[in-house]
Amino acid sequence: MKDLNFFNHYTESKKFKIENIYYLFILFLLISIFFYSFINQIKINNLSKKVSNLKTQVENEEIKTKVNKLRKEKDEINKVENNIKQLKLLDEFIKKEDKINEELIKDINLRIPENVFLISIEFNLSSIEIKGISGDKLSIAQLERNLNEIKSFKNVFISNIYFEENHYSFSLSISLKDEDVKDDEEKDEIK
User: Fold this and answer.
1) Where are the bilayer-spanning segments (predicted)?
2) Strand extents, DSSP E, 82-186
3) What is the number of H-type helices and E-type strands within the chain?
């Protein structure tokens, strides 16, 4: 004979509900994984499209030529900046080593007598050559004596003088002092 269990229905329904919850959870998990992978696939496709677009842009000849042109211009700018730096250094060196400057020319100009006119002045690193005319020899001698008073001149002498058409033409040769001697004199003056 078979036993009748009136509570069987209650116990089986609970099992059924618990199993359903497990199945629903697993179903939800699978659906979530599917959507997650689907979304990732969409992102991957979008990124692939962007990469392919960027690749075509990079491989575009027009853009390559522009990039090469910009690189060349950048190299030229770097060269120009380097040249500017070198020129600034050279300019500083020239200013430092400059023996013949505006002050020296003004000093020469202040010492020219009234009757003397300069035709040309030639400068180089160690000497100055002055050519001029005068109404008399005395004014030329006065110019030589006046120029001998300039401290940066080592030697001043009249190299050539001759009479021509109512005036005397002359050439003055001036030797400049060495920079080392000039520096030593400045140091002596300071002491």
Assistant:
1) 21-39
2) 116-123, 127-134, 153-164, 167-176
3) 5, 4
